[in-house]
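User: Could you check the structure of this?
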Amino acid sequence: MFTGTSILKFFGVSVDDFRIAGGVVLLMIGLGMLNGGARAHTGSPAEQNQQAQQEDPTFYPLTFPMLVGPGTITTLVVLAGHTSSVAHYTAIAAALVLVVVVLGVVLFFAANIGHHMSETLRTIMTRLMGMVLAGVAVQMLVTGLKAVFPTLA
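Assistant: Sure, the predicted structure tokens are below.
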């Protein structure tokens, strides 16, 4: 969040360019969720074998690249790229902490939540969240494209 804009400048990439790229990545993930495709990362054969031997299948350590992956990084860099005051950085940090706490609670209770959901409900929720993610991705693309190509606005 604090160094993303500097890293982008080092490579000659603007925040809006990064927003477009992040939108494309998020759109691919969202469309994969909508189509019921494979997970973003299923692991190597050794990782899959280790996961199959664990008793509780609700916790999959390789989920973390999805949680703190391209979408999260893009969002933080884009938000921080348009921020200039300490108050805005504080608000972003507070929102990030709140999301992490809520996510931690949901992951802690994931086994209990999973026992109360049917396979059909899981499929519906995955596809619904895929649609929401695709919508966010399209908005990122539109905003980035308008900034890079002002004649589109």
